[in-house]
Amino acid sequence: MCLTLLVSTAVTVALPACEEGELDCRQLCNAAQDEDCTTITGDCGDFCGALTNVQDESGCNDEREAYSDCLNGEGVCSASCNGDEAALTNCLTTYCATRLDTPDCMTLVESFQ
User: Fold this and answer.
1) Which candidate, 74, 102, 95, places its Cα nearest to that of 10?
2) Long-range pairs for 89-97 at CB < 8 Å and ≥24 separation?
3) How far is CA 2 from CA 13, 20, 44, in A?
4) Are 38 and 7 in contact (CB under 8 A)?
5) Total domain count for the chain?
6) Which pTM does this prediction carry?
7) Which residues contact 41 (CB under 8 A, 6 or more apart)?
8) How many angstroms separate the first and last alpha carbons of the chain?
9) To pair with 77 at 20 to 30 A between CA atoms, which of 4, 33, 58, 70?
10) Parent domain of 102
């Protein structure tokens, strides 16, 4: 299954080998930046890479997958994905709060400034 994510207020990520028709993290992030409906700034590849790197250790896999599925199903600017986005954001925020000195968490935090 394609692990992807984006955030119009939170986060984004993806792994290759998505099902046909699904957008990966970078594509979702770029589309949301093009539509001006995300708070993620900077390079989507860097952001998605950092998210991928922390997903296992953070325990945020389910949240990321649910958000990705919603974005792929409803569209990158869909308000119906807000609950899934909030769940992912909360998970990642909790994880990175004590790891702000790690490169991946620094990338994730900087992507929202």
Assistant:
1) 95
2) 89/7, 89/9, 89/10, 89/11, 91/58, 91/59, 91/60, 91/63, 92/10, 92/11, 92/51, 92/54, 92/58, 92/60, 95/54, 95/57, 95/58, 95/59, 95/60, 96/54, 96/58
3) 10, 10, 17
4) yes
5) 1
6) 0.77
7) 111, 112, 113
8) 30
9) 58
10) 4-110
Q: In which residue are the tokens 């708070």 written?
A: 39
What pLDDT, in 10s, does the model give residues 26-41?
A: 999 999 999 999 888 8
Alpha helices in the chain (DSSP H): 25-35, 44-58, 61-74, 82-96, 103-110
| Three-state DSSP state, 79 | helix
How many other C-beta atoms lie within 10 A of the C-beta of residue 65?
A: 18
Q: Please give the structure tokens belonging to residue 65.
A: 């997958």
**H or E element, residue 11:** none
For position 112, what pLDDT does the model report?
A: 74
Instruction: At 109, list the tokens.
Output: 């935090």
Single out the residue of 80, 20, 37, 21 nearest to residue 12, CA to CA. 37
Q: Tell me, what amino acid is at 68?
A: S
List pLDDT tens digits, range 70-87: 999 999 999 999 999 889
